[in-house]
Amino acid sequence: MIHTSETMYKYLRPDKTFPHVWCPGCGIGIVMGALVRAIERTGFTKDEIVLVSGIGCSGRMSTYLDFNTLHTTHGRALSFATGIKLANPKLNIIVVMGDGDATAIGGNHLIHSCRRNIDLTALIVNNNIYGMTGGQYSPTTPMEHKASTAQYGSIEKPFDICKLVEACGASFVARSTTYHAKMLDALLYRAIDKKGFSVVEAMSQCPVQYGRRNKKGSPVDMMMWFKNNSISNPAFKKIPSGEVGEQFPVGILVDLDEPDYLERYRQIVKKAGDDRL
Predict the structure, then answer these.
(1) In angstroms, rounded to a whole number, what is the distance separating the alpha carbons of residues 188 and 38?
(2) How far is CA 261 from the centre of its chain?
(3) Residue 91 in contact with residue 129, Cβ under 8 Å?
(4) What is the pLDDT of residues 160-170, one digit of tens each?
(5) How far apart (Å, rounded) are the C-alpha atoms in residues 112 and 20?
(6) Coil, helix or strand for 246?
(7) CA 160 → CA 12, 76, 110, distances in Å?
(8) Is the peptide bond before 14 cis (omega within 30 degrees of 0)?
(9) CA 100, CA 105: separation in Å to the nearest integer?
(10) Which of 9, 41, 168, 276 is a plausible cystine mate for 114, CB 3.0–4.6 Å?
(11) What is the pLDDT of residues 89-125, one digit of tens each?
């Protein structure tokens, strides 16, 4: 049995980086707790883990957690992580990004990481907004919802992150929320253990930049919305498309066994060597 407070303290850098920057009621702390518990379950040592993050609220995890860490430029976390994996394939690399970091500035890198099936775990914290930089609307802000750059509501269709990465070829795709913290813990464990490119979307409340502008109520209200509108993936598939409304599936959405990038690369190297004989 994992004792949460002891486990969290084991992986934090309390003397160097606290107090943290997250707003009261923010869900990113819950996501970070789930990530720490998942890593604890894997049995990997701190030196066997590399945590890479981009810019944004969730990107601060690499500052607070005591692993080999890299805080990179906006949208480029997956590029840095790919380089590390190619240099040392034995490392277990987890990439933490926000919805804007992953799907807007880093959208191109996300698409091609899926296509390559590089052996990384991507944790995308989706709070529907650019929280740290002033509350601008992101690719996941729902239509007609307000942001500092959409005072009368966003006019663009939002991304479904899980559908996007599934279409691009990710081997493992899963979604959970801050309300379902234990499920998030289990999904992250599965994703880290999975060979190939794994994506876990963690839906998280942003009560200050997103919730307040859109009258979503308290942080607890926002988490209850997750509870009331989420549904297991098998049950979700049985709902007629015209009756879905605001409901969304949680759990494992894709789980495929395919050769990853490094396996294919080694095959190419062997083939090139054989041709020279």
Answers:
(1) 6
(2) 20
(3) no
(4) 999 999 999 99
(5) 33
(6) coil
(7) 32, 21, 13
(8) no
(9) 7
(10) 168
(11) 999 999 999 999 999 999 999 999 999 999 999 999 9
Strand segments (E) across 54-197: 68-71, 92-98, 121-126, 172-177
C-alpha pair distances (Å), 113 with each of 141, 200, 201: 23, 14, 15
d(CA 120, CA 95): 7
3-state secondary structure the chain: CCCHHHHHHHHECHHHHCCCCCCCCCCHHHHHHHHHHHHHHHCCCHHHEEEEECCCCHHHHHHHECCEEEECCCCCHHHHHHHHHHHCCCCEEEEEEEHHHHHHHCHHHHHHHHHHCCCCEEEEEECCCECCCCCECCCCCCCCCCECCECCCCCCCCCCHHHHHHHHCCCEEEEEECCCHHHHHHHHHHHHHCCCCEEEEEECCCHHHHHCCCCCCCHHHHHHHHHHHEEEHHHHHCCCHHHCCCCEEEEEEEECCCCCHHHHHHHHHHHHHHHHC
Model pLDDT for residues 40-68, shown as the tens digit of each residue: 999 999 999 999 999 999 999 999 999 99
Question: In 10 A of CB 83, how many CB atoms?
Answer: 12
Residue 18 carries which side chain, given as an amino acid letter? F
Contacts of 250 (CB under 8 A, 6+ apart): 175, 176, 177, 180, 183, 230, 231, 232, 233
Tally DSSP H helices, then E strands, for the chain. Answer: 12, 8
Please count the residues of the chain: 277
Strands 49-53 and 68-71, sheet pairing: parallel
Backbone angles phi, psi at 78, to 5 degrees: -65, -30
Q: Give the chain's radius of gyration (CA, Å).
A: 19
- Which tokens is 97 given? 């990004």
Confidence at 2, pLDDT banded by 50, 70, 90 = low
